[in-house]
Design goal:
Keywords: DNA-binding, Transcription, Transcription regulation. The protein is built from 14 helices and ten strands. By secondary structure, it is α/β, with parallel strands linked by helices. The chain folds into three domains: 101 residues, no CATH class; 131 residues, no CATH class; 76 residues, Arc Repressor Mutant, subunit A. It is globular and about 60 Å long.
């Protein structure tokens, strides 16, 4: 059980994240990939992702990543630096800027829970070696592109439902009403200003006058989670509980029909995917296409002004333009930031 006391003015500082956080989703989905929890809701997703990892040549790297984020229990806080307010690239940059001392301390704690010989990937990352951190960042990005990004529409829909519920509660009852709305979740209870939730162990989360951010998560199951290091900005990540039919519905309506009729289903899916900048390889893995096909689709969209492509360091990234977003969402494009 987890207890959070919102006395002393803490209730007025509660924040609800804008959306799911990319690296919390990556870490928690990586745990789900290794266990059998909530099989009805996630087994089809597991089969799809495992197949995509093999097709994209990412399976070995993800197997090496798994000891850093085991199927249950503790995983290092540095893997989840966000609070639902940063994209994949910013979040990965935060991971890679983790001080060596913190890397070593959190991975030493992880090693106490691991059974058997210490995995090479854990030893390597713990050194803070530049090559190790480059591998970690690249693998996190590529894993997110295969296991999380293709399911963004379902994630956004569940987050939007949850956020609407919280907004309604806050408008009707202020901060107290917002907090009371979380007490409707299974196993959550509110007594005065003290919120108790299910948790893997007995714990009290001390806010100390700081803002608590409540982050919804599509791949969080059973119990909410908080960072272990209480010196870090406090977050409480809570499950969204998708129903067993979420993936078939996503596949049935993967692209807006009118847009799909106009530019084709694969290109409409690619355009939807590029709300986050991605390489051709990442796009190919996420959409289960050959890299040459993904490149050709990106080129067509770029020629139409719907996608832009630019080199950043040693990576070539595709981005959706304001016109591409407007086409997908059926709204007028925002040209305020567009070059003249």
């Amino acid at each position: 059980m987890l207890q959070v006391d919102f006395g002393g003015g803490a209730l007025g500082r509660v924040r609800v994240a804008r959306g799911a956080d990319p690296l919390w989703e990556a870490a928690l989905s990586l745990q789900l990939l290794q266990n059998r929890q909530e099989s009805l809701a996630y087994d089809t997703w597991r089969r799809e992702v495992r197949g995509a990892l093999h097709r994209t040549g990412l399976a070995d790297d993800v197997r090496a990543l798994m000891p850093l984020c085991p199927p249950t229990g503790y995983f290092p806080d540095f893997l989840t630096p966000g609070r639902g307010d940063t994209g994949v690239e910013e979040s990965v940059d935060c991971v890679l800027s983790t001080p060596r001392r913190r890397l070593a301390a959190e991975l030493t704690r992880l090693c106490r829970d691991l059974r058997g010989p210490l995995p090479r990937s854990v030893r390597w990352v713990a050194t803070g070696d530049v090559g190790a951190l480059h591998w970690l960042g690249t693998t996190l990005r590529r894993y997110h592109a295969v296991a999380v990004a293709p399911y963004a529409a379902a994630i956004r829909a569940r987050v939007a439902d949850d956020r609407a519920r919280r907004a309604e509660a806050a408008l009707g009852g202020g901060a107290e009403g917002l907090l009371a709305s979380y007490a409707e979740l299974p196993g959550w209870h509110l007594r005065g200003t003290r919120l108790t939730t299910p948790y893997p162990e007995a714990r009290s989360l001390q806010l100390g006058g700081r803002t608590l951010t409540l982050v919804p998560s599509f791949f969080c199951v059973r119990t909410p989670l908080a960072l272990v290091d209480e010196a870090l900005p406090p977050v409480l990540v809570h499950p969204l509980h998708p129903d067993p039919g979420w993936l078939p519905r996503l596949r049935a309506g993967a692209a807006t029909p009118s847009v799909a009729h106009l530019i084709g289903a694969s290109r409409a899916q690619l355009l939807d995917l590029l709300r986050t900048p991605m390489t051709t390889t990442e796009v190919a893995g996420a959409l289960r296409l050959a890299p040459s096909t993904a490149s050709r689709h990106a080129a067509v969209l770029r020629e139409a002004g719907l996608v832009s492509t630019r080199r950043e360091g040693n990576r070539v990234l595709h981005r959706r333009t304001p016109l591409g977003r407007a086409l997908l969402e059926g709204a007028a494009p925002d040209t305020s930031a567009a070059p003249g």
